[in-house]
Amino acid sequence: MNIKLIAIGKTDSKTLELLIKTYQTRLGFYINFSMEIIPDIKHSKNLSETQQKQKEGELILSKTTSTDAVILLDENGKQMDSIGFSNDLQKHMNSGVKQLVFVIGGPYGFSKDVYEKADGKLSLSKMTFSHQMIRLFFIEQLYRGFTILRNEPYHHR
């Protein structure tokens, strides 16, 4: 199985980029992981929230296929602990899905079309984080999930 993270907008912080890269490298020992960054919409100040979500949604959907399992990182998604997340990863791997795609939306969330395509929603916290920081938090949790599945000491129970 492949795992892909799609995110809107670039990361401005070199420190965050370095940490994200560190966990991406670590993930490579467990799974084929890729991250695809969709550039911020140009002239978004001239668009309504709905128009911006629609444009971002079209770009997000263009990066997925009909056979992908798509999970949105969404504040109203299912919350779980790290062990529950690792179990969820195992279920996806056992299901035979070829590519599991996680998506971090833009500042206003997702379009109706993206919600309709999604196979699920996951919330990392009830708190709000910047879209740049959530990338790091998510990739770290993905790495943690695989260390849990392998019974490795990274996650202390």
Side-by-side strand order of the widest sheet? 2-1-4-3-5
Q: Helical residue percent?
A: 40-55%
**Order of helix and strand elements from N to C terminus:** EHEHEHEHEH
For the report, how would you describe the main beta sheet? Answer: 5 strands, parallel
Instruction: Domain count, please report it.
Output: 1
CATH C-level class: Alpha Beta
CATH-level-2 architecture: 3-Layer(aba) Sandwich
Q: Spans of 5+ residues with little confidence (pLDDT < 50)?
A: none
Q: If you average the pLDDT, what whole number results? A: 94
Organism: Mariniflexile ostreae
Main location: cytoplasm
Subcellular location: Cytoplasm
Family: Belongs to the RNA methyltransferase RlmH family.
Question: What does the secondary structure layout of this molecule look like, with pairings?
Answer:
Layout: E1 2-8, H1 14-27, E2 32-38, H2 49-62, E3 69-78, H3 82-95, E4 99-104, H4 112-117, E5 120-122, H5 131-149
Helix pairs in contact: 1-5, 3-5
Write structural notes for this entry.
This protein has five helices and five strands, in the order E-H-E-H-E-H-E-H-E-H. By secondary structure, the chain is α/β, with parallel strands linked by helices. The chain has a single domain, classed as Alpha/beta knot (3-Layer(aba) Sandwich). A five-stranded parallel beta sheet has the order 2-1-4-3-5. Strand 3, helix 3 and strand 4 form a beta-alpha-beta unit. It is globular and about 50 Å long.
